[in-house]
Description:
The chain is built from 21 helices and 19 strands. By secondary structure, it is an alpha/beta fold. It folds into 4 domains: about 1-260, Alkaline Phosphatase, subunit A (3-Layer(aba) Sandwich), CATH 3.40.720; about 365-415; about 485-590, no CATH class; about 595-670, no CATH class. Strands 7-6-5-4-8-1-9-11-2-12 form a 10-stranded mixed beta sheet. It has a 4-stranded antiparallel beta sheet with strand order 14-15-16-17, with helices on one face. Strands 10-3-13 form a 3-stranded mixed beta sheet. Strand 18, helix 19 and strand 19 form a beta-alpha-beta unit. Helix 10 runs antiparallel to helix 12.
Amino acid sequence: MLLADDLGSKDIGCYGGPVATPAVDGLAAKGVRFTGFYSGAPVCSSSRATLLTGRQHIRTGVYTVIQDHMHDMHLLKSEVTIAEVLKSNGYDTAHIGKWHVGTPFRGRDKPWIEEHGFDYWFATDLNASPSHRNPSNFWRNGKRVGELEGYACQIVVDEAITWLDQKRDSKRPFFLNIWFHEPHAPLAAPDDIVAQYGDHNDPAAIYSGTIDNTDRAIARLLKKLNDDGELENTIIIYASDHGSYRPDRNGGLRGNKGSLFEGGIRTPGIFYWPKGIKGGRLEDAPAGAVDLLPTICGLLGIAKPKGVHLDGSDLSPLLTGSPDKFTRHQPLFWHSPNGQPNVAIREGKYTLMGYRKLEFPKDQEAIRTVMNKIEALLEKKLGRELTRAELWNKAYNTDFKTPEGRRLRSEFVMLNTFQEAWIPLIKAGSGGFQKFELYDLSTDPNQTNDIASQFPKVVERLVGRALAINASVLKEASNWGQDEPALAAGAKPPTNPRPSLEDADLEKLLTRIDATDLPEGYHGSTHQAYVDKRMAALAPEQRVRVGTLYEEKRRLHPNMPNAGMSFVKILEYVVAGETLKTKPAPEPAAPRKRHLFILSGQSNMEGLDPSVSFTPAVQRQFGTENVIVVKLAQGGQPIRRWYKNWKSANDTPSKDNGDLYDRLMGLVKKSME
């Protein structure tokens, strides 16, 4: 299994793309190339969970992109993966490359990769870091590897070849799951390859260079299989985890990474197996990563997992030349909780898109502030104004070079990161859908013409199917971070009714809630962490009540100025047992005098040596918490010595002393924060 990361549907050569990919093109020429192949989701973690299990990702525990340091969610240990199916049928199994469906690397209790059926693994929890060049975040079978020399795609193939040579039982069949990091940012590729596509500083050229470099790595792997006499009898599947973040690499399709429109979910899809597949063909039937597990079972003649609802279908009749025997038991379906549209279904030539009513509680004021700063940076760099769609895409995906740019991007991503506290709102039905759109992909592949009003019966049928599948998915969905108690026998789960108040009375209640003070300890910069902690302590019916009141607030005030603060006040109202209490404003703190000492000299001047009395003396005099000591030295010289020589003849700082002065000012500024 060869999976690219963030690769567009029109990036590689055999799909009409601009990058030279002879190795992958060769697989397509002798295999089956799908013209309409889809990822399991428009974002990374979700699509990978679907690929491994053949199930809609929310069923598997993965709602959206996983941040291991802040999310409990992960691919559930109870899920049956392709690796587990093959391992139970005598296969040696290995995962090599990016993982991103949850690891314990960052201290949270999550399964190790071997617990999902892989005998051997060499992986990163998410993207290659600090870039594709010389990554330092790989782990091998539970142990950190350290910095490696080379490019991620070549390092991954090196490991795969080593495993084939030395780590597996050559008498057994194998499953090798290779998930590349390219062309996901931050980007890096050899200069000589990048030069074939443009300037070495051009992001588009570097992006192309990473794809080219990956194809060269794949060529080495194919040569190894051929040299071992195994190429002709190895099933090779090539795809991407979703569409590209670069709008120019999705073939003019609407949307990109993160979107349920075609540009976000359509990917390459190539199947190669000379001894078992009738090759040299195009296949126009819609298919996707959700179909891989049942398809592999079909091609190998092994049983599918029992007692598990598979959302995917077995494509083996299409691959082996018996299309009349192919049936899709369920339409292709997507639910991307924090996307908009958030639901899509593909049946035949039609795609239906559903837009949720729910707006998740976020600190909109903080988001606007950060976005304005990012917009100013980008427009200064590009020399033009950006559309809203461009701005959001670039805010998420630009590889900023300056510390300020990187800081703003990080803050923007965190402010918009999925919160597990939202799960009760999602499972309660998200308030339904505000509208549905219908597109005929046979005549309108770019989805520019919504024909819902022209075909109401088609819309009615597809809405019914989408809602039924969605209900089935949400019924299996996990309650991460909720600790919900089991229901007593015969008890009914909490529902999400409208508050039993007329709008006028409801407006009075919500106005009174808005008049309350924000709780002590709450700050907009830590909004989601605060909400997560408070929501986790609530009973299920209380969480539903919070969601219900917030939805009513959105209904009555769709343009409320600060939705995040309103949500927190509603949350505190429910926490307090639905009683209102306005807290008095705290007394202003007395002015505090602090003392800053700048020292130049030997290291013991920091006070690390107890025999030196300066630092302890001033701490005793002014109080330890009121003393800041900044140490700066140049070979023990006192400040006046190097300050006197700071300016050179042309009145500019000399290199060494200018750097020292800058360091001093930086340390002083940091200490005063």
